[in-house]
Amino acid sequence: MRARSKRLWGVAIAGLLLVSAVTLSAVALKQHADLFYTPQLLAEQGKPDAGKRVRIGGWVQIDSIEYGDGADMTFLIEDGSGETLAVSYTGVVPDLFREGEGVVATGRFDESGAFTAENILAKHDENYQPRELKNARQATS
């Protein structure tokens, strides 16, 4: 085989490997990509298909957390637009989860349009301090 043919085969194999890697990455990302919605966006566009995994973000509305049996709870997410979304969740919520704070809930809508969260993430700003340190600083001031 001549040197030119070897280079041609090398470039062809490298191209095939590159296309395969890009295709595999695209398929893997598509399966794990979660779309992010706010209550206002859901009101404007409508709710996604039942059973589709999505992320809902906003703030926990004040006085909206209701606890049920065991670890069951429901609360409302708002985004400042006047729209709200009811979320039900079963499990232990993060320590930073509280009314008036940012939250991202990952879950699914059912056929009736109710949102059931599978995971709750509490958000905080860049100035976060643990409660223990904040209380200690206030006591020394």
Strand order in the sheet with the most strands? 2-4-5-7-6
Q: What is the number of E strands?
A: 7
Shape: elongated
Helix-strand category: alpha+beta
| Residue fraction in strands | 25-35%
Level-2 CATH architecture of the largest domain: Beta Barrel
Number of structural domains: 2
CATH superfamily of the largest domain: Nucleic acid-binding proteins
CATH class label of the largest domain: Mainly Beta
Membrane topology: Single-pass type II membrane protein
Family: Belongs to the CcmE/CycJ family.
Function: Heme chaperone required for the biogenesis of c-type cytochromes. Transiently binds heme delivered by CcmC and transfers the heme to apo-cytochromes in a process facilitated by CcmF and CcmH.
InterPro entries: CcmE, CcmE-like_sf, NA-bd_OB-fold
Please specify the SSE layout and strand pairing.
Elements: H1 3-32, E1 35-37, H2 39-45, E2 53-60, E3 66-67, E4 72-78, E5 84-90, E6 102-109, E7 115-122, H3 131-140
Parallel strand pairs: 1-2, 5-7
Antiparallel strand pairs: 2-4, 2-6, 3-4, 4-5, 6-7
Extracellular side: 29-141
Organism: Henriciella algicola
Cytoplasmic side: 1-7
Structural commentary:
- This protein has two domains: 33 residues; 85 residues, Beta Barrel (OB fold (Dihydrolipoamide Acetyltransferase, E2P)), CATH 2.40.50.140.
- 33% of the residues lie in helices and 30% in strands.
- The chain is built from three helices and seven strands, in the order H-E-H-E-E-E-E-E-E-H.
- The radius of gyration is 23 Å and the shape is elongated.
- The protein starts with a helix and ends with a helix.
- The model has no long low-confidence stretch (mean pLDDT 84).
